[in-house]
């Protein structure tokens, strides 16, 4: 589609009661503004100008490389905001869309329909409208005797009769750009809010004898603007449902989709099962045959085929095929579980490779460790990687057996085919094939208790 878009996002968003601008608030991990910009791109609109203003140091980096930026400084109203994008679009003659930066639920299909309606009708303006159950606060669509859109009246300027209209302005439009920028210079602030209303160009078009079309959104949720955090939560639930239904239709099973939150950058293969209270974030990918959850949070984590990831928190982690995690595993950045590995219950792993079929089943901390394949780490074993100043490395060779409650004081290298006795503190390197014991010898004194009691009784 060959069209351009202006995204209005200069406002502060008073009702969010926030120190950051409204459009920078996130919905399923993505800022509101980016939902709109990304949707425009997926509708095929690549020439995008975002009008930014309030706390631009926060909003501008969000769209860097994705859109041009125009700056509005005086917040004189939506007509003024659009005018601010004029320079950036000076070479554009043809359709230009105006989108609201606080409406994350708009779909690419609707934007395409809006553009198509303008292209087919050559209308000066096409307005996306919606039938709102409660129209309060929205601009009302006033139609003439022939049913044509005559003008848009803002809530504060509406007569009682106009206020009773349920058809509302969604804040999405497709204009003929030459008409738009000329009309904007004729907009006045002679209204209840003393603002320059973009919506006034509709009436200007009709006065000039130009066509104005209206396209009604099938689903009013799509046009929902976020003004406060209650609306943010509602919009999140709508998006959550949309995303989860798409994955279920693609072959993912969910026991309770209402308790599963999947961010838009996540990818999931078919025949994955997602159990309740699971959050999948960032660039997480799950391969087929795996079960994830319950009570699991994965961020930028890849999970291979046929894994079980139960009650696990993982951030920046690679989990290969046939692995098991949890219940209650905490896998921190740089962890790589090779094929068939296990990170069991109450296990924390950071910046470490756990080799093929190696197992860390219970109550362990493994940090900055390179572990070979077929290793077994006994319960309660820990790599002491931090000496109070810096992090130190541990290596453990193939097929090595680390007895329970072993402390490996890094830097230390434990070879292949090694056996370490339970309760050892390993401070020196262990060569391949050795038995290592690093603990005090046990002392046994036969009959000690009887003598002890006798001596107590004397006193
Ligand atoms: C606007 C429409 C109203 C419509 C509603 C839909 C006008 C006059 N009214 O009203 O008909 O029903 O949207 O949600 O256009 N903005 C700027 N600079 C400004 C003013 C606004 O960038 O000077 C941005 C805001 O940040 C926001 C968008 O424009 O993203 C809409 O502005 P807002 O003040 O929320 O308009 P509404 O009163 O909701
Ligand atoms: Ca608004």
Would you kindly provide a written description of the structure presented here, covering whatever features stand out?
The chain has 459 residues and is an alpha/beta fold. It folds into two domains: 4-223, Spore Coat Polysaccharide Biosynthesis Protein SpsA, Chain A (Alpha-Beta Complex); 229-436, UDP N-Acetylglucosamine Acyltransferase, domain 1 (3 Solenoid). Helices cover 20% and strands 31% of the residues. It has nine helices and 41 strands. Strands 5-4-1-6-10-7-11 form a seven-stranded mixed beta sheet. A seven-stranded parallel beta sheet has the order 12-15-18-21-24-27-30. The longest helix has 21 residues, at 229-249. It is elongated and about 110 Å long. The mean pLDDT is 97. Uridine-diphosphate-N-acetylglucosamine binds next to strand 1, helix 3 and strand 10.
Give the tally of structural domains. 2
In spatial order, strands of the major sheet run 5-4-1-6-10-7-11
Which structural class is indicated by helix and strand composition? alpha/beta
Helix percent band: 10-25%
**Strand count, sense and closure of the main sheet?**
7 strands, mixed
Strand content: 25-35%
Write the layout of secondary structure elements.
Elements: E1 4-9, E2 26-27, E3 30-31, H1 32-42, E4 47-52, H2 56-63, E5 68-71, H3 78-83, E6 95-100, H4 108-121, E7 125-131, E8 140-143, E9 149-153, H5 160-163, E10 167-176, H6 177-184, H7 200-207, E11 212-216, H8 229-249, E12 252-254, E13 260-262, E14 267-268, E15 272-274, E16 278-281, E17 285-286, E18 291-292, E19 296-299, E20 302-303, E21 308-309, E22 312-315, E23 317-319, E24 324-325, E25 329-331, E26 335-337, E27 342-345, E28 347-350, E29 353-354, E30 359-362, E31 365-367, E32 369-371, E33 376-377, E34 382-384, E35 394-396, E36 401-402, E37 407-409, E38 412-414, E39 419-420, E40 425-426, E41 435-436, H9 448-458
Parallel strand pairs: 1-4, 1-6, 4-5, 7-11, 12-15, 13-16, 14-17, 15-18, 16-19, 17-20, 18-21, 19-22, 20-23, 21-24, 22-25, 23-26, 24-27, 25-28, 26-29, 27-30, 28-31, 32-35, 33-36, 34-37, 35-38, 36-39, 37-40, 39-41
Antiparallel strand pairs: 2-3, 6-10, 7-10, 8-9
Helix pairs in contact: 6-7
Bound molecules: uridine-diphosphate-N-acetylglucosamine (UD1) and calcium ion.
Residues 8-11, 51, 72, 75-78, 80-81, 100-102, 138-139, 152, 154, 168-171, 197-199, 225 line the site of uridine-diphosphate-N-acetylglucosamine.
